[in-house]
C-alpha cells in the first residue's frame, strides 16, 4: 500500500488502473493534514487518489466561505497563480468548488523554508547557515525571485507583497515566489479591493514590530511597501515591485532592514522620506561590493521614474555583478 505521507515514489502508486468508480471534485482527495492558516485562507496537504501524489490544497477559512468579496479575491489568486507558469512559481493543478468548503485550488507540495528564516539565522550568527547561504547564493536566490516577477510583469501582473517570507527555498535548491493573494492586473484600480495598509491598523500591528534578531513575527508587508503603496495610490505598475525587491536585496546583503522605525507610522515615514545608507555602510563587516550598493540604491529611489524601469534591467545588473566579481 502506498505511503501517502512520503515524498518518494512507491511502486503501487504507479499502478496502471484508475479508481473505479472515478472520483471527481473533492472526493478524489484524502488524508488531509493541516499545514498553515493566516489571513482569510488555510493550507492543507492531501493525497490526490487519481494522479497518486501529495498536493497542497488552499481554501478559505470557514467564516469567509460565503463572503462574496473574499471569494472574488480568492478566485483571482487561484487563477493568477495558475496562469503564471514559470520555474520560479508554484504549479496549480486544479481549481474547484465544493458546497461545504467553497472554492479550493490544489498546488505542488514543496518542502524547504522561506528566505527570511535563513536571513534570521544568519543575523543570529549561525555559521552553518552563513556558509550555506553565502552572499553569492543569496544573490542567486534574489535573481530567481526577480525572474518570477519579470515574467509576471510581462503578463501584466503586479505581485504587491514581495518580501523574504514569500520567497521559498526548496530542499533541492529550487526558488519559488509565493503568495499572489494580493496581486493585481496592471492598470486596473481594483478600487473596492485596493491593497492599502491602513494607518488605523497600526495599533494592532505595532506590537509585532521587532528587530530582525529579536525572533518575533513580523508584519512583513509594511516593511516592504513602496512609497506609492504607502500613499494609497490605486494605480501601481512594476516599479512598485522593483522598490520592494530592492528592500529585499538590501536586507539580504546587510542583514538589516532599511526602513524599519520604532512603530509603523515611523516606518511609513522612513519609506517616503528617508534615504538609508548603502548596505555596505550599514554593515561594513559583511564585505558588500560597491556594485551591489548601486543596484540596491537605484531600486529603492523614492520616485518611480528614478528606479529601474523594468525588472529585467535590474536582473541584468545583478547577473553582471555575479559574473564580474568573485563573491565570497
TrEMBL record:
<dbReference type="GO" id="GO:0004674">
    <property type="term" value="F:protein serine/threonine kinase activity"/>
</dbReference>
<keyword id="KW-0547">Nucleotide-binding</keyword>
<dbReference type="GO" id="GO:0005524">
    <property type="term" value="F:ATP binding"/>
</dbReference>
<protein>
    <submittedName>
        <fullName>Serine/threonine-protein kinase PknD</fullName>
        <ecNumber>2.7.11.1</ecNumber>
    </submittedName>
</protein>
<keyword id="KW-0808">Transferase</keyword>
<dbReference type="InterPro" id="IPR011009">
    <property type="entry name" value="Kinase-like_dom_sf"/>
</dbReference>
<feature type="domain" description="Protein kinase">
    <location>
        <begin position="29"/>
        <end position="322"/>
    </location>
</feature>
<dbReference type="InterPro" id="IPR000719">
    <property type="entry name" value="Prot_kinase_dom"/>
</dbReference>
<keyword id="KW-0418">Kinase</keyword>
<dbReference type="Pfam" id="PF00069">
    <property type="entry name" value="Pkinase"/>
</dbReference>
<keyword id="KW-0067">ATP-binding</keyword>
Amino acid at each position: 500500500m502506498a505511503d501517502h505521507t512520503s515524498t518518494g515514489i512507491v511502486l503501487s502508486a504507479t499502478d496502471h488502473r484508475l479508481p473505479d468508480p472515478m472520483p471527481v471534485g473533492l472526493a478524489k482527495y484524502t488524508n488531509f493534514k493541516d499545514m498553515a492558516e493566516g489571513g482569510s485562507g488555510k493550507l492543507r496537504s492531501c493525497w490526490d487518489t487519481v494522479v497518486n501524489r501529495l498536493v497542497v490544497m488552499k481554501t478559505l477559512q470557514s467564516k469567509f466561505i460565503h463572503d462574496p468579496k473574499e471569494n472574488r479575491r480568492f478566485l483571482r489568486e487561484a487563477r493568477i497563480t495558475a496562469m503564471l507558469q514559470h520555474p520560479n512559481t508554484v504549479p496549480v493543478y486544479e481549481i474547484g468548488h465544493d458546497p461545504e468548503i467553497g472554492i479550493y485550488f490544489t498546488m505542488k507540495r514543496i518542502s524547504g523554508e522561506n528566505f527570511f528564516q535563513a536571513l534570521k539565522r544568519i543575523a543570529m550568527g549561525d555559521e552553518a547557515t552563513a556558509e550555506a547561504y553565502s552572499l553569492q547564493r543569496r544573490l542567486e536566490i534574489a535573481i530567481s525571485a526577480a525572474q518570477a516577477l519579470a515574467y509576471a510583469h510581462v503578463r501584466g501582473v503586479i505581485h504587491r507583497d514581495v518580501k523574504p517570507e514569500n520567497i521559498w527555498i526548496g530542499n533541492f535548491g529550487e526558488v519559488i515566489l509565493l503568495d499572489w493573494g494580493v496581486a493585481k492586473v496592471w492598470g486596473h484600480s481594483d478600487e473596492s479591493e485596493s491593497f492599502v495598509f491602513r494607518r488605523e491598523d497600526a495599533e494592532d500591528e505595532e506590537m509585532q514590530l521587532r528587530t530582525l534578531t529579536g525572533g518575533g513575527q513580523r508584519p512583513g508587508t509594511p516593511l516592504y511597501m513602496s512609497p506609492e503603496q504607502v500613499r494609497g495610490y490605486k494605480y501601481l505598475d512594476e516599479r512598485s515591485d522593483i522598490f520592494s525587491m530592492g528592500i529585499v536585496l538590501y536586507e539580504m546583503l546587510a542583514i538589516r532592514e532599511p526602513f524599519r522605525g520604532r512603530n509603523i507610522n515611523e516606518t511609513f515615514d522612513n519609506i517616503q522620506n528617508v534615504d538609508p545608507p548603502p548596505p555596505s555602510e550599514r554593515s561594513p563587516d559583511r564585505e558588500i561590493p560597491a556594485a551591489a550598493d548601486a543596484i540596491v540604491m537605484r531600486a529603492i529611489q523614492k520616485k518611480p521614474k528614478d528606479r529601474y524601469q523594468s525588472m529585467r534591467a535590474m536582473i541584468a545588473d545583478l547577473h553582471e555583478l555575479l559574473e564580474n566579481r568573485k563573491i565570497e
